Each structure stands twice: as structure tokens, then as C-alpha cells.
Amino acid sequence: MPSVRLGQSAWKLVQSPVVVFVVALVIRLWAAAQLLPEKMWPFFYQYNEPSRIAWAILSGHGYSSPWPNTPLAPTAQQPPVYPILLAGIFKLAGVYSLASLWIAVVLNACFSALTAVAILRLGKRDFLPLAGVLAAWVWSCWLYEAVVAIRIWESSLSALLLTVTVLLLGDLATSPRRIRWLIFGILAGLAVLTNTTLLAVFPFFWWWLWSTHRRRGASCGRLMLASIMVCIVVILPWTIRNYATFHRLIPVRDNFGLELWLGNHEGVTDRYDTDFPILNPSEYNRLGEITFMQTKRLIAMNFIRRHPGDFLRLSARRFFKFWTEPSRSLWLPMNLLAWTGLFLAVNEKRGDAIPYAIILLAFPVVYYASHTFPTYRHPIEPALLLLAAYALVGIVQAVSRRLGRTTSPISDGASAY
Questions:
Q1: What is the C-alpha to C-alpha distance for residues 159 and 167, in angstroms, rounded to an integer?
Q2: Which residues contact 10 (CB under 8 A, 6 or more apart)?
Q3: 299-312 per-position pLDDT tens digit
Q4: Three-state SS string across 122-188, please?
Q5: pLDDT tens-place string over residues 310-340
Q6: Rounded alpha-carbon distances, angstroms, from residue 228 to 89, 163, 205, 231
Q7: Exposed, middle or buried by CB within 10 Å (0-12, 13-18, 19+), for 132?
Q8: How far is CA 163 from CA 92, 323, 332, in A?
């Protein structure tokens, strides 16, 4: 029948990786067109730390100076991948230019559109096919995700790297091929050098791989060790640079003390306090980066020791904000669905759902202890949307069965994949 053929054609269209990629890319470029060039400086460049470091690199000062009105001195405040990528763009099209901004925005949009394709594939492999289609299209079309994706920040690249590593993780659970394990180690190292918070998930990923192989009576010890060593080799040059520059061990970045202090000190508020270097760099300039970061860490640790109840209260507030911000958005119901989806996945898929539990449980911990911001959640939002879509599809199917509908559009669409 024509209607059946039309439905099959529509289903093939919406689950096409090319269509999903193009739609996601177009929506992100449309969002950029609404903001550029009028918002070029205040929305993208002003106070942007990776851009400032990229400017310093091209000005001959090396990897330095993340904030305006501070000395042109070496820094480890940012992990290196994204600032160095921006420096290459600045070299190609001009420092702080509109052309450079467009190149960076298009690149971020491509990262985010590729993430949509990865979501589609993860849905097909790990969940119901319709859940993957739904999650990929929400990621592609939701204007919030589009705007966050095009910021001059590492968020889009971090989301892509994490999603691709989860894709590869499923293959490694059954694959003895050494090259895949080595690629996983390279991706892990690049992810950590892009967003250091991702370091929280990769040890648990390796543990899951080891336990999965052992449960199946196989051994992956050598492969896992090789993967971990490759990850260390990727990170090591940056660690050596930091030791040679600052004469102390700084594996990736040195700003945890500042981040901890932002959320834990006397009179803490929801906003940056006045001695944050962007607002008032005098203390940073006087002490230098390392001493400044250590001083802030000591203040925060003393506050936590003397006020453990306040620390727990503030951490609980940060927990709530991480899963609900931006306020007056869809993220509260979306995340409730995601946690429901995780519960269903663990119940139905057992060990195969553990990587998603690792992401939701391990990634945010550092933000609960320090401070949070709505865009910090972006790297794990592909996993959140997949779990939310899985829960929603499961709920609709359960309701349909309860109402006695033996055949529903949901089940037809999933089986037609």
C-alpha cells in the first residue's frame, strides 16, 4: 500500500546517518548566523581562555596568559588540545578575526553533527533502534544543544570523543584485535588532554573491559595494559612540559584549587567572586599562577574542614544544579527520564549497560565538590539523551501493551529498522 511504502521511506530517511549529519550541521550553522558578527566579541571571544592562550602562542609568548590583564607567563590552566587547535585556526585566518571565528564555529558544528551520527549508531547497537533515532534527532534539532555546541570551547570535541570511545568500548568487549585497543588508548589520551574531567571515566571503562572479558572466560590483561600505556604516552609530553616549566608534577592542568575555591569559601555565592582573575587579576598577578592556585586550594580545604555541614549542603545544591540547569528548561524531566532509562537498561541488559552508569556516576563528581555551570554537562548529554529516549520508548510500548494494542507505530518502526 502507498501509505506503508511512504512510512518505510520516511523511516529510512530519519535513520540515515547522512540526513542526521546534514540536519544537525545546518541547524548549528543557522544558530551561528543569528549570533555573528554582532555577538562576535561578547559571546565568543571576550574572556575566552582558549582564545587568549591561542593569541599568546601566536604572539611568541608560548602557551601562556589565559586571562586579560595578566602577565604573559606560562600556564597550565587549560588542557592543551583545544587552545592549540585554535592557535592553528588563528594562524590560518587571523587572530581574533571573524574568519577565524567562523572556521572554529564550523569545526565545532561538524564535531557536534558527527556526534549525532555516533548517537544513532549507539542507539542501534545498545538500545532500541527507535531510541537511537529519537535521541539523534533531539540532539540534532534542539536549539540549546546547537548553541552550546558552537561556543569557542572544547565541549563539542569532548562530547564527540566520549561518544566515539563508548562506541569503540562495545567492540573491545568482544574483540582481541590489538589495533582497536591501541586506538582506544589514543582516544582516551586525547580526551583527557581536551577535557580533564573525562579522566574520571576511563579507569572505570578499562575496569569494565577487564571484568567483561574475565566473565566470559577470556583474558585481556596485555591488551588493556597496552591501551593504558598508549594513553599515558599521549599525555606524557604535556606532563613533561609542565614539569620542565613549573618544576612540579602537573599531569594535565593546575587549576583544581581555583575551581574548588569557587564553590567552597566564606561567603560563597552562585556567581564568580571579585578576586577571580577575569574580574580582578591583582592577586593572580602578585602571586603567580602556581602559588595562586595553591593558595585558593588551601582556603577551600580549610573551609571544608571547618564547615563540613556547609560543604555537604553546597555539594547537594551543586548536584541539583548539575542535573537541572539551565533553569526553566527541559533538562529536569529529560534527566529524570535518563536516570529511568539507566535503571531499565541495567535491569534488562545487565553488564552491557555499565558504561552508561559509569558516565552518569563518575563524570559529574568533581563538579559536585567544586562548582558547576550548565555547559559543563555537555560532554555526557549524548548518553543522557540516549537513555532518556530508551526510557520514553519503553514507557510508550508498555502503555500500548497495557491498552491492548498488539501492534503500534512504535513497535512497527523499531522492527522495520
A1: 12
A2: none
A3: 999 999 999 999 99
A4: HHHHHCCHHHHHHHHHHHHHCHHHHHHHCCCCCHHHHHHHHHHHHHHHHHHCCCCCHHHHHHHHHHH
A5: 999 999 999 999 999 998 889 999 999 999 9
A6: 31, 19, 11, 5
A7: buried
A8: 29, 19, 22
